[in-house]
Amino acid sequence: MSAPFEERSGVVPCGTPWGRWYQTLEEVFIEVQVPPGTRAKDVRCSLQSRHIALSVRGQEVLQGKLFDSTITDEGTWTLEDRKLIRIVLMKTNRDAGNCWTSLLEDEYAADPWVQDQMQRKLTLERFQRENPGFDFSGAEISGNYSKGGPDFSSLEK
Known about the structure:
Layout: E1 14-16, E2 19-23, E3 27-33, E4 43-47, E5 51-56, E6 59-65, E7 76-80, E8 84-90, H1 112-130
Antiparallel strand pairs: 1-2, 2-3, 3-8, 4-5, 5-6, 7-8
Region (Disordered): 134-157
Subcellular location: Chromosome, Centromere, Kinetochore; Cytoplasm, Cytoskeleton, Microtubule organizing center, Centrosome; Cytoplasm, Cytoskeleton, Spindle pole
GO molecular function, one term: unfolded protein binding
């Protein structure tokens, strides 16, 4: 199993040749390993609604059409400890059924097991938000969780 669920951080990472990416209901996180000593002026990063481009010291690292749309004005990148670039993209569609299967339309796809774990995580996150008074610390999702799980919004409270 190539990308286990990380209990402490609550993420299901998808490994790539340059680092990893993962998602929550609202955001997509991209972590790119760069040569130690990299400075911000060495980085060129363009974040658009459906497109991303990243180069470091003139070398293209990541470029292409994103899997789904993002809110351009809320995308950010940071250089951490001069060795890691963290990019945060805000999803336009923020429901549990919007689990990205890949970072780009044709690259960096999660394998089927990782995709399943990502969908479970997003469904559990949705349940936590809908039921803030419940403790979900030991909860597991099984059954119908694809596309965000069953919709209970029409039930009377």
